[in-house]
Amino acid sequence: LARGTAAPDLAGRRVVVSAGGTREYLDPVRFLGNRSSGLQGYALARAAAARGAEVTLVSANVTLPDPAGVKVVRVETTAQLRQEVVAAAVAADAVVMAAAPADFRPTEVSDAKIKKAADGSAPAIELAQNPDILHEISTDRARPGAVIVGFAAETGDATGSVLELGRAKLARKGCDLLVVNDVSGGAVFGSPDNEAVILGADGAAVDVPYGSKTALAHRIWDEVAGRLPD
Ligand code: CTP
Ligand code: CA
């Protein structure tokens, strides 16, 4: 905290942050992935460390430098992400799922590189749904009193607005806070900036105006810190 300006309000707290996007392999060289850059998760890890927390960052396929003073655990697939997050959650005062786990994985991973067929046909890829890590840790509550935070990137659709979908997702996941972004247009991916509404299971709705991912990270930790038991 030497030159930091943040108050050490997370001193003595253990927090877990997941970041990046998982990859689901089809064969040794190909995968299904997504556009998550890891910037928001890394900003959360740096902000928590600046506020005195002991931080574990479970990082999926992120190319950013390791944040100073943070334990970084690297994973690739959703199964690996789940294993590391569930293990770290046992002793965590807060878990923030900023990662974008792939929702589906190929049912079969080929040991050998898939080759093109001579007849010009393409393979069909069968998919299975991945486990929902946020739902699992919110339901199990390995450490009572821990604050569990999810993210939701929504565009809004015929079934509801971005906020309505966010409220429904918060209830479905069972977490304490859900950070909802409007991603219509895809502008947030890889951008240093973000805007969001932080929804609480307690009814809270905190509007965070457009600003840096670091500013949003600190606003999220404010909400977490205010809900931690003494
Ligand atoms: N999440 C998770 N495990 C998954 C999928 C998502 O833990 N297999 C977490 C994400 O890290 C995020 C939150 O759940 O914090 C919401 O992710 P999102 O993709 O919006 O939720 P889904 O349940 O996958 O719903 P959707 O069908 O809208 O993608
Ligand atoms: Ca999803």
From TrEMBL:
<feature type="region of interest" description="Phosphopantothenate--cysteine ligase">
    <location>
        <begin position="15"/>
        <end position="230"/>
    </location>
</feature>
<feature type="binding site">
    <location>
        <position position="173"/>
    </location>
    <ligand>
        <name>CTP</name>
    </ligand>
</feature>
<comment type="function">
    <text>Catalyzes two steps in the biosynthesis of coenzyme A. In the first step cysteine is conjugated to 4'-phosphopantothenate to form 4-phosphopantothenoylcysteine, in the latter compound is decarboxylated to form 4'-phosphopantotheine.</text>
</comment>
<keyword id="KW-0285">Flavoprotein</keyword>
<comment type="similarity">
    <text>In the C-terminal section; belongs to the PPC synthetase family.</text>
</comment>
<feature type="binding site">
    <location>
        <position position="169"/>
    </location>
    <ligand>
        <name>CTP</name>
    </ligand>
</feature>
<keyword id="KW-0288">FMN</keyword>
<keyword id="KW-0210">Decarboxylase</keyword>
<keyword id="KW-0511">Multifunctional enzyme</keyword>
<protein>
    <recommendedName>
        <fullName>Coenzyme A biosynthesis bifunctional protein CoaBC</fullName>
        <ecNumber>4.1.1.36</ecNumber>
        <ecNumber>6.3.2.5</ecNumber>
    </recommendedName>
</protein>
<comment type="similarity">
    <text>In the N-terminal section; belongs to the HFCD (homo-oligomeric flavin containing Cys decarboxylase) superfamily.</text>
</comment>
<feature type="binding site">
    <location>
        <begin position="131"/>
        <end position="134"/>
    </location>
    <ligand>
        <name>CTP</name>
    </ligand>
</feature>
<dbReference type="GO" id="GO:0016874">
    <property type="term" value="F:ligase activity"/>
</dbReference>
<comment type="pathway">
    <text>Cofactor biosynthesis; coenzyme A biosynthesis; CoA from (R)-pantothenate: step 3/5.</text>
</comment>
<feature type="domain" description="DNA/pantothenate metabolism flavoprotein C-terminal">
    <location>
        <begin position="10"/>
        <end position="225"/>
    </location>
</feature>
<feature type="binding site">
    <location>
        <position position="103"/>
    </location>
    <ligand>
        <name>CTP</name>
    </ligand>
</feature>
<comment type="pathway">
    <text>Cofactor biosynthesis; coenzyme A biosynthesis; CoA from (R)-pantothenate: step 2/5.</text>
</comment>
<comment type="function">
    <text>Catalyzes two sequential steps in the biosynthesis of coenzyme A. In the first step cysteine is conjugated to 4'-phosphopantothenate to form 4-phosphopantothenoylcysteine. In the second step the latter compound is decarboxylated to form 4'-phosphopantotheine.</text>
</comment>
<keyword id="KW-0456">Lyase</keyword>
<feature type="binding site">
    <location>
        <position position="151"/>
    </location>
    <ligand>
        <name>CTP</name>
    </ligand>
</feature>
<keyword id="KW-0436">Ligase</keyword>
<feature type="binding site">
    <location>
        <position position="113"/>
    </location>
    <ligand>
        <name>CTP</name>
    </ligand>
</feature>
<keyword id="KW-0460">Magnesium</keyword>
<keyword id="KW-0479">Metal-binding</keyword>
